[in-house]
Amino acid sequence: MTEKKQVAYRLKLVRGFLDESRQDVALRRWRSAVDNAQLSVENAAKAVLALLGPVGRTHNPATLLRQALDRGAFTNEKSEQVRQLAEQAELLGPAMHMQTDYGDEPEGRSPWELFGENDASRALAIAERAAQLAEEITKGAPL
């Protein structure tokens, strides 16, 4: 898949998971809303990483974004937005992914016991911001 197609594909995933998170909030499905928000943020970060080349399988793209920033892979104009996106991806990173899927095993709490309305609203807001950043960063990017 070309870089341009990879970016477009990831942005489709961002929008799809974001839409599902919004629907989950409306339906009061808190765990599912957080899960879909996390996937939206993860794919927003991967869409930006796709500007640099193929994106491997990872649930922690924030680390890869930070490494790319450190080596100067983004223009000064885009670097601040990429830094902000990395922050969003850290907030809803792999630990959140594990909790939405498996809960808190040591404490015996299921994923549905871990998340409430405030968690879902916060996760959705983070995903909305990450989606906006990914769209801005990838718009007009040379590929």
Report on the structure:
It is a single chain. This protein is mainly alpha-helical and 143 residues long. It is built from seven helices and no strands. Helix 4 (76-91) runs antiparallel to helix 7. The two termini are 13 Å apart.
Main beta sheet strand tally, sense and closure? none
Are there runs of 5+ residues with pLDDT below 50, and where? Answer: none
Q: What's the gyration radius in Å? A: 15 Å
Strand content: under 5%
Span of the ends, CA to CA: 13 Å
| Helix/sheet category | mainly alpha
Number of helices: 7
The portion of residues assigned to helices is over 70%
What is the residue-mean pLDDT, rounded to a whole number?
95
Overall geometry comes to globular
Helices and strands, in N-to-C order?
HHHHHHH
Number of DSSP strand runs: 0
List keywords for this structure.
143 residues; mainly alpha; 73% helix; 7 helices
Helix/strand layout:
Elements: H1 3-26, H2 30-49, H3 61-70, H4 76-91, H5 94-102, H6 111-114, H7 117-138
Helix pairs in contact: 1-2, 1-7, 2-3, 2-4, 2-5, 2-7, 3-4, 4-7
